[in-house]
Design a protein that fits this description.
Largest sheet: none
Shape: globular
Radius of gyration: 23 Å
Number of strands: 0
Structural class: mainly alpha
Strand content: under 5%
Number of helices: 21
Distance between the termini: 53 Å
Amino acid sequence: MADMDEKLRSFSEHEDVAGTPPNTTPKLDQHGFPLRPQPSDDPKDPLNWNRWLKLFTLLQVSFLAFLGPFTQAYINSAYAPLAASLHITIVEASYQTTIAIVLAGVSPILWSPISNVYGRRPIFIFVSAIGIAAHAAAGAAQSWGGILAARAFVGIGTSAGMGIGAAVVADMYFMHERGTYMGIYTVFVTNGAHVAAVAGGFTAKDIGWRWCYWIPAIIVAANWLINLFCLPETLYHRDPLTGKTLQPSRSWLQLFNFTGVHIQRRLRVWDITHVFVMLKYPSVILPTVYYSISFGLGSVLFAVTGSAAFGSIYHFNTAQIGMAIGLSTFVGTLLGELLAGPVSDRVLYLYTKSHAGVPKPEARLQATWPGLIILPAGVIIEGVCLQYKTHWSGPVMGMGIAAFGLQIVQTNIFAYMTDVSFLSPNIYGHGRADLETVLQTTIGRDIHPAELRTADFLVYAGLLHDPLRDRDDIRCCVVRSRCH
């Protein structure tokens, strides 16, 4: 009983500093610590939803995020036949992925503030509709210019899941459990391109490159129908410190149409530009840079060296390259999540317990230490195995280990930045989607022409042997790996 009194007293003292009445009785988690944010008494508040409704919503949003890199990368294995059909070079064929990824990264700058004002559901439905039309247009286009234009809208139309998905996680889950559920979300985000490497390779090989546009169009359309009828609105206005409801009551039916959000203000220019202002804060820019470097080492690097190596050293075909890179990284991220989300929440709990019930987002960063060691270890294993031309299982194992470490880093960074936005709303704003936008728009999820030259450098330096290096074959192998 004394411990409970101490926890309540610490909550009151901590929240009184933030301007909350000290006599507010908080709702507690299973450990007896005050919930953050405090839920309202409204059963329609996403924080109060049934666990299965939360999970169903999480899986829908996570799959939307998965479809972003998946559909953008699905065509990557078909660059060679596409280039031959349209009479362009392999490098020019790769621009369709570049333009899709660039616009997918820029678009959340707009979707994030709109969703903070008008709700998440309208953005998901509207943006996905653009994606369906864009994929179909790319499949039907008869000219290279038409495909490029369609692929630009593919980037826009598949950006919502990655752009505001983490905000939905924050809408539904409390701070002490976000590590686990943010981990589920990031597994989907990471593996979209990995699965595309496998599926796209077989599609291009067996039924032709145009089906690398039509199959994503069909998948996105089917998912859109599910979201239209089954994806509820998660934006809810409450006082995060007291749980006081700040919006009128709504029915369950309103959650599944476009009237479930009480619009409290108009969209401002500041809402859009605020994302750039946040980069001045060390708590934003440092984790972002760390994650960017980790993603480059644990994902993009393999797309460059991995494809060139398996194509030239092991003489793998397109489908085999896709399986070597895609399956190893897919398994690595799944296993890595076992030591990511749950461990992140446990570390936060132990910190909260030892600090009188007051959590600190930076505690989650301690859980990234295993990833800091495992990720570069996997990269080194892959590099050494390629240099000495070991059995192909060696570099495959290295990529899987590095993906394992990357998942640990990614889950903790996403959860940390979501927590930061809640505990410091006066600095980072009221929309948790803003900080995710910083992550998604500052990470290079693409292999640019400069990286093609990096692969050439590896060949000339002797790290990769390619007897056809004076031909365009090496570029054919490299650009097939543009999975991100």
